[in-house]
């Protein structure tokens, strides 16, 4: 359904989509990106090129500097640690029994008692119900399902995370981190290396191992947990020619191929290449912003997730040139703003970064890597690119307020506070957002703007 909606939106906008294509070269005119080459046989001119890939794969094809792991692109350490990845899979309950092809009757390659015990630290047959993040683990099966619970249109019942026993569709995204660890020592286990991002063959190898890890966990749930009615969902739309022909792993035996084809086309990668931008957002800046001690006048998105690094979070894993320490990490959720300047490469024109590839530190990337905030920053990048092309200027020459107006017109909140007396439906919502962003009106409190209050002389003086 999601793919159908996105396809209709692209059709309505007149966007040409070239599936199963890859940018293999970028054309530069001095310091400006002016075109791309796809698959070695198709060429496009470009006014603004956006790298929204999962790994930041287009950035190195330009002359833009970037960060990878804890180093800069002019001195890459291929052995530096990056975060664990997760090859998620949507699973569902088959009330009439799992189809024969989706049952795992023999242990997948690499399954061991050590791995079984590791899974058992997360989920166990007699585990605890979910009691918040400070609560005990291992969880029971219902708690596991509530953690990543999803709607199920085949289920006539309504449910939410407070009714975990009713959930019939969820995602495996917890015990199957790769390389993986136990809950107790998660931060002590190193993730992949920077080579995962820079070496395509190593990436393919690790992705296949991560995919196998998820199938190993599914085997654990069907055997040790006794959850024989659960398997990979066969209606998520992933059974495509790409998954069958280009994304198949030799490490996965023939008996498991029917399940492999139903898994997503790529893993959840928590860390990417990141451009060196006009402004690099750090964890300290996020924390000051979250505490409302400072506001970002050039905000183009609001996130609310704390710093969450899956491994590789010692001081030695941070960027020395940013003087960032592991102690700079922060909790959540509390809102923070992302500056417009994080989207703009320090010197290269005709080029923008989106997804996890914008100008942030490793720690800050732990807060901007989730889908809600990457969708919002991506929307901002799209607006900036479109405005730059329409105005015939480079993105760095845009007035941030012009991008903000476009985003506010689309209903994307940019101010740090959410005022209950000025909801999105209010005719003054956009004006209040801009006035708060630019320090003209701060409101009565973080939750009340006071839109109907009489202005006093002190407020008028600020205006």
Main sheet strand line-up: 1-2-3
Low-confidence stretches: none
Count of spatially separate domains:
2
Class of secondary structure makeup: alpha+beta
Description of the structure:
The chain is an alpha+beta fold. The protein has 2 domains: 218 residues, no CATH class; 176 residues, no CATH class. Helices cover 27% and strands 13% of the residues. The strands form 6 sheets. A 3-stranded antiparallel beta sheet has the order 1-2-3, with no helix packed on it. Strands 6-5-13 form a 3-stranded antiparallel beta sheet, with no helix packed on it. Strand 5 and strand 6 form a beta hairpin. The chain is globular and about 75 Å long.
Keywords:
2 domains, 13 helices, 16 strands, alpha+beta, 3-stranded antiparallel β-sheet, 463 residues
Mind sketching the topology for me?
Blueprint: H1 2-12, E1 23-29, E2 32-38, E3 42-45, E4 49-51, E5 66-68, E6 71-72, E7 85-86, E8 89-93, H2 113-120, E9 123-128, H3 141-147, E10 169-172, E11 177-178, H4 195-198, H5 200-223, E12 230-232, H6 241-246, H7 257-260, E13 274-275, H8 283-290, E14 299-303, E15 336-339, E16 351-353, H9 362-368, H10 371-391, H11 400-409, H12 429-437, H13 457-462
Parallel strand pairs: 4-16
Antiparallel strand pairs: 1-2, 2-3, 5-6, 5-13, 7-11, 8-10, 8-12, 14-15
Helix pairs in contact: 10-11
């Amino acid at each position: 359904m999601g793919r159908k909606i996105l396809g209709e939106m692209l059709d309505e906008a007149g966007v040409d989509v070239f599936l199963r294509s890859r940018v293999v070269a970028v054309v530069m005119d001095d310091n400006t990106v002016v075109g791309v080459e796809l698959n070695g046989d198709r060429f496009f001119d470009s006014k603004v090129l956006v790298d929204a890939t999962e790994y930041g794969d287009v950035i190195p094809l330009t002359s833009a500097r970037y960060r990878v792991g804890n180093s800069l692109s002019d001195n890459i350490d291929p052995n530096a640690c990056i975060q664990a990845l997760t090859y998620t899979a949507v699973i569902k309950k088959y009330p009439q029994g799992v189809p024969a092809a989706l049952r795992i009757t023999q242990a997948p390659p690499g399954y061991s008692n050590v791995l079984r015990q590791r899974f058992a630290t997360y989920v166990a047959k007699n585990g605890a119900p979910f009691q918040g993040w400070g609560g005990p683990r291992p969880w029971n099966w219902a708690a596991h399902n509530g953690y990543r619970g999803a709607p199920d249109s085949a289920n006539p019942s309504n449910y939410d995370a407070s009714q975990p026993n009713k959930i019939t569709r969820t995602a495996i995204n917890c015990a199957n981190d790769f390389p993986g660890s136990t809950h107790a020592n998660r931060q002590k286990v190193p993730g992949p290396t920077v080579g995962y991002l820079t070496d395509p063959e190593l990436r393919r190898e690790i992705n296949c191992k991560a995919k196998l890890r998820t199938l190993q966990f599914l085997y654990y749930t069907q055997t040790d947990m006794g959850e024989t009615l659960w398997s990979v969902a066969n209606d998520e739309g992933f059974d495509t020619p790409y998954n069958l022909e280009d994304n198949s792993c030799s490490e996965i035996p023939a008996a498991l191929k029917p399940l492999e084809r139903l898994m997503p086309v790529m893993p959840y990668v928590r860390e990417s290449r990141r451009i060196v931008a006009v402004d690099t957002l750090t964890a300290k800046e996020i924390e000051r912003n979250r505490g409302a001690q400072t506001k970002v006048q050039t905000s183009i998105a609001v996130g609310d997730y704390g710093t969450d690094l899956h491994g590789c979070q010692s001081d030695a894993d941070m960027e020395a040139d940013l003087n960032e320490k592991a102690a700079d990490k922060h909790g959540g959720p509390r809102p923070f703003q992302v500056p417009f300047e994080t989207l703009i490469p320090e010197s290269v024109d005709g080029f923008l970064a989106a997804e996890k590839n914008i100008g942030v530190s490793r720690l800050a990337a732990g807060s901007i890597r989730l889908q809600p905030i990457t969708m919002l920053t991506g929307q901002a990048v799209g607006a900036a690119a479109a405005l730059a092309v329409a105005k015939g200027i480079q993105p760095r020459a845009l007035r941030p307020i012009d991008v903000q107006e476009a985003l506010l017109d689309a209903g994307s909140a940019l101010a740090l506070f959410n005022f209950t007396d000025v909801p999105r439906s209010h005719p003054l919502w956009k004006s209040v957002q801009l006035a708060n962003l630019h320090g003209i009106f701060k409101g009565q409190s973080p939750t009340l703007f006071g839109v109907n209050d009489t202005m006093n002389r002190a407020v008028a003086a600020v205006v």
